Amino acid sequence: MFFVLIVAIPIAAIAVLVVDVTGDSAAGKADARLATGLETALSLYDDGVAGARREATALLQEPAVISALGSRDSAQIERVTGSLGRQRDITYLAITTPYAITDGDDLTPIESAIPIATATVNTTGDSGEFGLVASVTDSERYLEQLSGLTGLEAAVIGTDGEVAATNGATADDLPAAGSSSDVSLDGEDLRSASSGLPDSEDTRVTLFAPQEAGGFFDSSPRIALIVALFLAVALTGVFFMARTLQSQIAAMLDAARRIGSGDFSHRIPVHGRDEMAGLASEFNKMTDQLEGQIDQLRRQRRELDRSVQRLGEAFASGLDRDALLAIVAETALGACEAEYARVALENGTMIEVPAGAAGPARDAAVAAQKRSSREGSKVDARRDNGFALAAPLRSLGRDEPVGTLAIGRGGAVFGESEREVFLYLIGQASASIENISAHERVTEQAVTDELTGLPNNRAFRETIGREASRADRFGHELSLIILDVDNFKRVNDTHGHLQGDEVLRAIGQLLQSEPRAIDEPARYGGEEFVVALPETGTDGAVELAERIRERLAEHSIPLLDGSGALNVTASFGTATLPGAASTVRELFSVADEALYEAKRSGKNRVVTAPGAVRSRR
Fold first, then answer.
1. 188-196 and 340-345 strand pairing
2. What are phi and psi for residue 484, nearest 5 degrees?
3. What's the start-to-end Cα distance of the chain, in Å?
4. Cβ distance 293 to 410 under 8 Å?
5. What is the pLDDT of residues 314-370, one digit of tens each?
6. What sign results for the dihedral spanned by CA atoms 438, 441, 443, 445?
7. CA-CA distance, 282 to 279, in Å (whole number)?
8. What is the SS3 assignment for 464?
9. What is the CA radius of gyration of the chain?
């Protein structure tokens, strides 16, 4: 039974497996080559789609095409787009229009039997939305490029069943998308594989690869003979060795069972100097090593549990700078077997782990941190029986340090492996600080108008929505001022857009200089500005608007060419919630109406809403 289980059955299974594997080896080699070729085909397809999108986009920007699309003349559209499309090497072009076409549903200025790697680009004109479906490669060119890159024969089948092939294949020779099969063409046995193309559900590309011979082990009788000889030799050896090995194997089995149950105290007796004695000796060494490794694994498991906890805290902290720095300090503490860690940033932020620690480890770490901050390099320090490492934290691409990470412990210097881990953590901490800083910059840019430094439209709508909810909750009034620069187009036309930017920047500075901290000015768009006035009624809004109007009218803006100064005025519309409106949307609407009444009434004035227009100048 031992021989059957240990030798006969495994050898028989291997023989069957070898026969099966060698039978499939030719197909396996061909499939691997076909898989690589299909990846090339899809990559070539993606390049074609990108080229088609680029050329279609450029075609839509041609003045002649824009004019033709607006003419609603299908013949002109086909003639112009077809001519310019062929100049751009477009091999297929179809156009959908927002209006009815007299000759059919769609226009096809450039036709192709099997469009390949098509890209759709949409544009909106005066008549509505137009769609262009374009391709810069046809089936013949695609197959020629694909065969040249892969060295394989290829075929493409289109949506209507049309087939283009380099080897005369027909639709019946092509496997379904995502599958492979054997096929015979012109007396040659080939392996084929297909992959769908995104042009449509029925469009697919197929590659053909020759099948190679499997070699010596294709011969099943030879394998059977080798297996039989091996079994005979093995049976003879087992017969003579069975009694000799039985006792040693029994002893090893008993020891293995003890190890499996967690008992590492038993050792196998070693008798003689033969291989079994050597095996018993090595088994005992393995037991000793396993016992030590199990203890080490227990320690590592405890550290892993702490690391998982720190990882969870990192996920929870998100982009909280202090929380992430605390996790970095705790990680350095555990990974380097330190007793104390501290992170000190240039902005005054200080993280200590554990907080409130004292002793030689902390004293050495503080000294190392100060010295590293001063010298801008990695340093070692010692205070009494305390040893420390410290290194600067730097943002990516900057030489100036943004802080320092230091660790300390008592009784032993840090080893080389601990130093490597420490420097790795320095890099990770620096990257974390850089990511947080970048997030803060992006967050600020997302809600700030770059020209004036004021909040932008998006930020202002969030602010006034929040203030409206607060006013409704506490019964306060909320006023809105909308101002528009008078004759701003004349400034741009006369002095240039850069001078116009200076005007807008000056107005932004003027609004920011108003003393009330609760007011919320913003650039609304173009030459329009808005101011939200929490807890302010109509009279307060008009008073502030008048003050801004007068200050702006008196303010001289230097001309960029140095030839003098420029004075501008603005028209103002004010409205109050809930007096003039019941929602934020209505508040904007009535304030905007008041602004345009100020424009119509002669500009450079303040008009309030609602009811009879109240105008002050």
1. unpaired
2. -130, 130
3. 112
4. no
5. 544 455 677 777 888 888 888 888 989 999 887 788 889 888 888 999 999 999 989
6. negative
7. 5
8. helix
9. 40
3-state secondary structure of 201: coil
Helix (H, G, I), strand (E, B) or coil at 185: strand
Give, for 248, the enclosing helix (H) or strand (E). helix 220-260
Better-predicted residue by pLDDT, 301 or 563: 563
Residue 52: its H or E element? helix 9-60
> Measured between alpha carbons, how far is 552 from 562 in angstroms, rounded to an integer?
20
Peptide bond into 578 cis (omega under 30): yes
Q: Please, which residues have CB within 8 angstroms of residue 147's CB and are 6 or more apart in sequence?
A: 153, 154, 166
Q: What pLDDT is recorded for position 493?
A: 93
Domains, the chain: 1-218 (no CATH), 219-294 (no CATH), 323-442 (3.30.450.40), 457-616 (3.30.70.270)
Q: What is the pLDDT, as a whole number, of residue 164?
A: 85
> Average pLDDT of 272-286?
77
Q: CA dist 454 to 102, 449, 557, 575, Å?
A: 54, 5, 19, 21
What's the token pair of residue 47?
Answer: 């390049």
User: How many Å apart are CA 616 and CA 543, to the nearest integer?
Assistant: 10
Please state whether the peptide bond connecting residue 175 to the residue before it is cis, i.e. omega within 30 degrees of 0: no
| C-alpha–C-alpha distance, residues 567 and 554, integer Å | 7
Peptide bond into 354 cis (omega under 30): yes
Q: State the Cα–Cα distance between residues 246 and 149, nearest whole angstrom.
A: 62
How far is the CA of 111 from the CAs of 59, 91, 146, 201, 202, in angstroms?
17, 7, 22, 20, 19
> For residue 603, what pLDDT is reported?
93
Residue 479: DSSP 8-state: E
Q: pTM of the entire structure?
A: 0.37
Q: Is 192 helix (H, G, I), strand (E, B) or coil?
A: strand
* Residue 563, SS3 per DSSP: coil
Residues 165-220: tens digit of each pLDDT: 887 788 787 888 888 888 888 778 888 888 888 766 678 889 888 876 555 455 55
Q: Which two tokens stand for residue 374?
A: 């001063």
Place of tokens 């005025």: 569
Token code pair at residue 319: 């982009």
Quote the strand ranges of 395-462, DSSP E: 401-410
DSSP symbol at 132: E
- Tokens representing 462 are 């969030």
Between the CA of residue 313 and those of 306, 335, 343, 430, 434, what are the distances in Å?
A: 11, 17, 17, 18, 19
Q: Please, which contacts does 611-614 make with residues 24 or more away whose CB atoms are closer than 8 Å?
A: 614/542
DSSP class per residue in 69-93: HHHT-HHHHHHHHHHHHHHTT--EE
d(CA 200, CA 351): 59
Q: If DSSP codes are grouped into helix, strand and coil, which group holds residue 134?
A: strand
What tokens appear for 224 in the block? 């059977």
